[in-house]
Design brief:
Length: about 475
């Protein structure tokens, strides 16, 4: 996505007021649509009745509904209550509620919030309508203008001014957009009494030339420590090379600084993939770790969401890879860390983060991760009494505030799985017919039985000690 920001200059104050009124009605329409979508109303029904309510054409209304739906889905994705969304900004609203400011300072804050709440308009692009029907770029002898549809066959023209005389490339790009009928979206925003336009076009990506046919680079992004681990595999899923890129700049600093470094690290990953002629596999961009209470309150979850910008970094890798014609595959990240630490970290003597990247790469090739035979033997020999002893030990450490309660939950789950296996002849480890247990559950049991006794206070990063158990099947010593 290429976005051009421009300030709009109106020939007279009357035209500006007409556009401000349009923005106010569109913003109200969007908020109204949001509340109706919360109540379960359908888009088709809203599109039919809202044009008369807000005196907007059907295209403006449809764009308002789309923005409302996008806001609703975003709130759900972040685990927030959609009913607590505040248009205009929650932080500004909370400041206004405190009444800690008086006079001009309070009025200035109030105006800023009202501008963010009521000063918006969005218009989608359409190739069949020569780029954009409601907000169209037109090039004239005396400059470049934005034609804004303010009513039936009524238009207001505003000059696009953003230093284009000094920046010929941007001016040429605007002319190219206007003359080529490329679909472009326009978003108007009111800031400090001025109206700004944000003109966006979808960038045309080159044909994908680097695919997974010759192998893959798997990417694992870690919140602690801040680093990107990568693993290169061939087309059969065999490990070829690996590495890790530390990212200390993402742990602190302002948002602009972190944004800059996210792009830099994304460039490094894409450069590796381009040099090795391998596709890239990343985790799906949903943040499913909501913390222990399910409200994003956990320490790791907060770091991922706020400081580390996990989702943003993966998006940048995806964008840059597409620009280079590199295939990007997204996979389910479930249990990649557990499988990596137990199966591949001791086998290849690599860190658990690189091992997780290896699992992600193999998953991108469609490879299934089978539990090694010696681990199956170990699990078949494991008794509930042994887990109960481990649970008793962990309960003591929890009381001493040395461990979190989540360790007890993991042990209880492992005991539950083994109890279900008691009736199985020979305790064959496979997904249980007629139960909700899957192969992933057995990896969970392994983690409890192997990792917790080794390091009950904190998950280890070096798992070389498991090599004898994994390869030679030696176990029995405490």
């Amino acid at each position: 996505m290429i976005v051009i920001q421009a300030k709009l200059i109106f020939p007279n104050q009357e035209d500006k007021q007409i556009v401000l009124d349009l923005m106010r009605r569109w913003s109200s329409c969007m908020r109204f649509a949001y509340n109706r979508l919360l109540e379960g109303e359908k888009r088709a029904d809203l599109k039919r009745k809202l044009p008369q309510v807000f005196n907007l054409n059907s295209r403006y209304v449809d764009d308002a509904i789309m923005k409302a739906r996008s806001t609703l889905e975003s709130a759900k994705e972040l685990g927030k209550s959609p009913r607590k969304v505040i248009f205009g900004g929650k932080k500004l609203f909370r400041k206004l509620q405190k009444h800690h400011l008086n006079g001009k300072a309070y009025e200035k804050l109030k105006v800023k919030w009202q501008e963010k709440r009521k000063g918006n308009l969005y218009s989608r692009g359409d190739k069949s309508k020569k780029g954009n029907l409601n907000t169209r770029i037109e090039v004239r002898k005396n400059g470049t203008f934005l034609r804004i549809n303010v009513g039936e066959r009524k238009y207001v023209y505003a000059k696009i001014e953003a230093g284009y005389k000094k920046n010929k490339k941007r001016g040429e790009l605007l002319q190219e957009i206007a003359e080529s009928n490329i679909p472009y979206s326009v978003e108007l925003k009111l800031k400090n009494g001025s109206i700004y336009a944000y003109i966006a076009i979808e960038e045309q990506y080159p044909e994908i030339k680097i695919t997974k046919e010759k192998g893959i680079i798997g990417i694992d992004v870690n919140a602690y420590p801040d680093n990107i681990s990568w693993a290169e595999v061939d087309e059969k899923g065999n490990l070829i090379s690996y590495g890790s890129i530390p990212m200390p700049e993402l742990a602190s600093g302002n948002s602009d600084k972190r944004e800059y470094f996210r792009w830099q690290y994304a460039h490094e990953i894409v450069k590796i993939a381009k040099e090795k002629r391998k596709a890239i596999v990343i985790e799906k961009l949903d943040i499913k770790n909501k913390g222990e209470k399910g409200d994003f309150s956990g320490k790791k979850s907060r770091r991922i969401r706020h400081n580390f910008s996990y989702k943003s970094l993966l998006k940048k890798i995806k964008i840059l890879a597409k620009k280079e014609g590199i295939e990007v595959i997204e996979v389910n990240p479930s249990y990649t860390s557990i499988i990596g630490m137990l199966k591949y970290a001791p086998q290849y003597m690599i860190t658990k983060d690189i091992a997780a990247a290896y699992v992600i790469a193999r998953r991108g090739l469609g490879r299934e991760e089978k539990i090694p035979d010696n681990y199956i033997k170990f699990l078949n020999a494991l008794t509930i009494d042994e887990l109960e002893e481990l649970k008793e030990h962990v309960e003591k450490t929890v009381r001493n505030k040395q461990l979190k309660k989540k360790h007890l939950k993991e042990i209880n789950k492992a005991i539950e799985i083994l109890q279900s296996l008691e009736s199985e002849p020979g305790r064959v480890l496979k997904p249980l017919d007629g139960t909700s247990f899957s192969a992933y559950d057995f990896w969970r049991v392994l983690k409890v039985a192997v990792v917790t006794p080794l390091s009950p206070e904190k998950v280890k990063r070096d798992f070389s000690v498991l090599k004898e158990l994994l390869i030679q099947g030696k176990w029995g010593d405490p």
